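Write out the bound-state structure for iron/sulfur cluster.
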Amino acid sequence: MMILIQNGHRCERQMRIFGRLFFSDDEYTLITTHFTHENDKISVYATVLTDDDVYFYDYALDFPNNTADASLVRKTYDAACALAFCKAAQKMRPVSLPWGVMSGVRPAKVVRQFSESGYTDLQIRGILSKIYGASEEKIDLAFEVAKREKLLLSEIEENTVSLYIGIPFCPTRCLYCSFVSTDVRVSGKYMDEFVRLLLLEIDKTAEIMKKMNVTADNIYIGGGTPTTLSACQLTMIFDKIKERFDISALKEYTIEAGRPDTITPERLSSARKGGANRISINPQTMNDDTLRRVGRAHSSEMTRQAFYMARNAGFETINMDLIAGLPGETSKDFCHSLDEVIKLNPENITVHSLCVKRAADFRHTQNALAESGEMNKMLNYAYKIMRQTERFPYYMYRQKNMSGNLENVGYAKEGHMSVYNVNIMEEVQTIIAMGGGGSSKVVCGTHIDRVFNFKDPVEYIRRFEEILEKKNEILKLWEERNKK
Ligand code: SF4
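---
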């Protein structure tokens, strides 16, 4: 149980986010902060009391009392309290905080927003380092990603949208899965009906897009694992997309084929004939023992075969995902996986840090999760080797409960950055989502309205009328947006 007492400034949400990194819910913890801002100086005195110990930290930061930017003032106060607490707690437990007390999921977006508000690079670096306590290395990464994202964002044209289609089926469920997906051995009987209704939702989406006077500039078919569907079902979806949208205007058309065991020449041919030009084949690791341990029914050799099949089918941009910190893996295992993937020479590689929100699942496996030092070695190796092979970081996000409190980074060769990935992070273009678990975002400046599709295929089928109604809701939000 965490008890929080704050004087001078309250920021309970922020404090609880960081409190959970150090203490579990069943530990008695009393946290206090005493905050003042006088004579251009912020001071926070934090104490942490547990059943066994008490620690404190006296934090001070120069910060002008007359700062006009109210949002920066609030963020600074929150960060100062959180940082004072973390410094006290770190005396008790060595939790690594490479991003300091930046709790948001999009560090590069923070850089972009400060920059658009008129702050210089030097000032932004000062804020990230002094106020949030982020390391120089992470600040450099955030700037590098922000620079590349800016390039893609500048190319987004008015009255264009991204389209997302969610296929919530996978052949089996991975132990660490935090996505929208159902195991096809249980939900497979709903696939035909799901596809039949999805085609109707595509029709409906095309109708509202006509009224919105917008066109799609990219399409992303994700999941789940879309290639869990049969080649015939995929063809029906691709044909419908071709019938209802102008795919010749697309900058990018992606299909996720996350599980190599679902990739066949027939499915690839269906995707290529449908117009897809980018594919994601996700080994997660190239170590067969780990694959078995985490519940993936494929081998590293199947990944290689799937990769060559996709190349032969004509995919010019192939992405491969790896996860750093899978249970039982050391930095040596991860580096081996990365070396093996690089030998295949994909244009994109995305390196995820294991998200341990399902840590409970791993406890039963008796497989240790990597310590932060090991995690750092893995990500540092990735950064170095990507640079050597001319792949550069272009999108990044963080999640709660990531191993080592690190980040997920997408690397790309020149000319192969994914428009959709950047857009989903930066939220500057409207996204219309279809299928299971899709979340539409109607963007108006910095204001975003979200409309969620049902995640579960059974729910999607049973409440399909509501799915169609949600499309009308998107149209209404768009019309209101245009009145502003
Ligand atoms: S392949 Fe991806 S979406 Fe499917 S179960 Fe595994 S982690 Fe989840």
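---
The domain at 1-95 is CATH 3.30.160.100 (Double Stranded RNA Binding Domain).
The chain has a mean pLDDT of 92.
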